[in-house]
């Protein structure tokens, strides 16, 4: 599809590749803003739940985890992301990834691989290329911290690398179209 001489599929703000947007695109024009608002509400709510799970595992204290997750959920970064629609999805996807990375010991390897791959797909398709680049830099540094802070860091590294490789391959349709 070409709009004003520009191929729409290569637009870095194209949100068609983000799987959690697909239900929003199925609603009528009159209900589109309601659907986007509902999607943002669900993402922000789930962001707090996943943040609580992440902080509870990192801090080891339920009260501090609740305080940290509420502060994380209601921070100025979230206020900024609400003004840029796709950035909320990226903030949510990054939080899901952090929760999944910290809760790896609680699941089997196959489930971890699939969930990490899905979270990477959500990260790589959620926002524009610049935001995704900086998100991947920060997640890479946080992941390295996690590899060195657990007993079986090498196994976690291999699992995470496999998840990132698979998620990147699945997301390559979105990534490669921006490089045109």
**Intertermini distance:** 14 Å
Write down the Rg: 17 Å
> Which term fits the overall shape?
globular
Query: What oligomeric state is this?
Result: single chain
- The amount of helix comes to over 70%
Structure in words:
The protein is 75% helix and 2% strand. The protein has helices at 22-25, 32-59, 62-73, 76-83, 85-102, 109-126, 129-149, 153-178; strands spanning 2-3, 6-7. It has a two-stranded antiparallel sheet with strand order 1-2. The longest helix has 28 residues, at 32-59. The chain starts with a strand and ends with a helix.
Annotate the secondary structure layout:
Elements: E1 2-3, E2 6-7, H1 22-25, H2 32-59, H3 62-73, H4 76-83, H5 85-102, H6 109-126, H7 129-149, H8 153-178
Antiparallel strand pairs: 1-2
Helix pairs in contact: 2-3, 2-5, 4-5, 5-6, 5-7, 6-7, 6-8, 7-8
Top keywords for this entry?
single chain; 180 residues; mainly alpha; two-stranded antiparallel ribbon; 2 strands; globular
Précis, in short:
Helices cover 75% and strands 2% of the residues.
